[in-house]
Amino acid sequence: MANSASGDSVVDRVVRVIEAFPEGVTTLQLTELADRAGLPLSSAHRLVRQLSHHGLLDLGAGGTVRLGLRLWELVNRNSPTLALRTAAMPFMEDIQQVLNQNVNLAVLDGWEALFVERLSRRGSVANRAQIAGRMPVHISSAGLALMSHQSRELQAEYLRHFNDPAGKVSADVVRHLLAEAAQQGYVQLAGVVDPDTWGIAVPVMNGKRKTIAALGVVVPLAEMRLQALVPALQTAARGIGRQLA
Prior knowledge:
The chain is α+β, with helices and mostly antiparallel strands. It folds into two domains: about 10-75, Orthogonal Bundle (Arc Repressor Mutant, subunit A); about 80-245, Beta-Lactamase (2-Layer Sandwich). The chain has helices at about 10-20, 30-35, 40-55, 70-75, 80-100, 140-145, 150-160, 170-185, 225-245; strands spanning about 25-30, 55-60, 65, 100-110, 110-120, 135, 185-190, 195-205, 210-220.
């Protein structure tokens, strides 16, 4: 791949252009896009024209740039989480029907929980998890449920690199949370992301007993019913695992 004067490849620049769109924003002015991608305006314009030719971006009047439908199509058609989401959706809908609250599905990506599906209803409590959004492992019940069922080697590496920018949690605290979650088979976090909510999550395992996802709910603190929520989530997680098998 040809490099620019700065040494980055064409692929590097294309990724920077696509990543320049903030969460929830699908349209940018070309000048802002170039600035966010750290590219000269002429380079950004050239890349946008090439990407729009393939339908990955749309270049509109007045220099507006939108994410293209072709990009959405390719990502969803070939997503490795497609089978997981398809298997999980009926169980997530059942849980939401009973609780009338948020239901999340997440996978582990590096040291973060990546949320691949979310169901919520009007009147449900605040839920910071967004589809295609990320949360650090240590502040997410889903993240802790995922990490607590990984290999000892991966957990040790995670704890070696652990850093809480807010300085509120130490590696020793996270180590304790992971051990507790592995023993209990579920994770509960109260008021971590939002002071009025409680997150509960359980691991989803495939036929080889490998944890591939976490299924969780976010409920009001006042309505916390751990003895009812955990069995319901675990039953749903087993059902998802059977569907995937």
